[in-house]
Amino acid sequence: MSQDNPFKWRHFQLGVILLCVRWYLRYPISYRDLEEMMRDRGLAVDHTTLNRWVICYSPEIAQRSRPHLKLTNGPWRVVFQGTCTSRLVTQWLEHFLLQHLQKPSIVIMDNAPIHSKKAIKALLQKHGHVMLPLPPYSPDFNPIEQSFGNLTVPAQRKALTVS
What is the full DSSP assignment across 7-52? Predict the structure, then answer.
């Protein structure tokens, strides 16, 4: 992509491309929904074109907007591409998350097998933080699963009944 003009040779104006990419990245909509929204606004943009724009311009938008982002005190959500290992989680924690946490902080960890609890706990304590592990998963603690279970039991009994 050209640094001078990343929109050179595109058939649509810069504002239209950025609007579409921003909407796709910001809101949970599909390319076909976005195509329909643009059609409602008088623009004929194919969903495959929208996909190409998102693939092409997302990294550029992320890179240019990074200096303007503010730190958050809310929950951190991270998406890993590829295989996530305990080594990757520990490195991310050490080289990224610990750089931004205010002391003292509580880091809540779920029970994923990739979380090396001893290594993470030691690393957090070394930097003045506390790890709070979630309790092991149990459907007994989940009211949604109990409700769903109550709904499925009568259906299973009907299926087993032979007339």
Answer: TTT-SS-HHHHHHHHHHHHHS---HHHHHHHHHHTT----HHHHHH
Which of 34-38, 75-79, 114-118 has the largest mean confidence?
34-38
Alpha carbon of residue 45 to chain centroid: 27
Note whether 18 and 57 are within 8 A (CB): yes
pLDDT given for residue 71 in this prediction: 63
How big is the chain by its Cα radius of gyration, in Å?
24
pLDDT (tens digit, 9 = 90+) per residue, 17-68? 888 888 888 888 899 999 999 999 898 999 998 998 888 888 888 788 777 7
Which uninterrupted H or E stretch holds 130? Answer: strand 130-133
Angle (nearest 5°) at CA 64 between 58 and 66: 95
Beta bridge partner(s), residue 132? 108
Q: Which two tokens stand for residue 110?
A: 């779920």
pTM above 0.85, yes or no: no
Task: Choose among 26, 34, 29, 35: nearest CA to 58.
Answer: 26
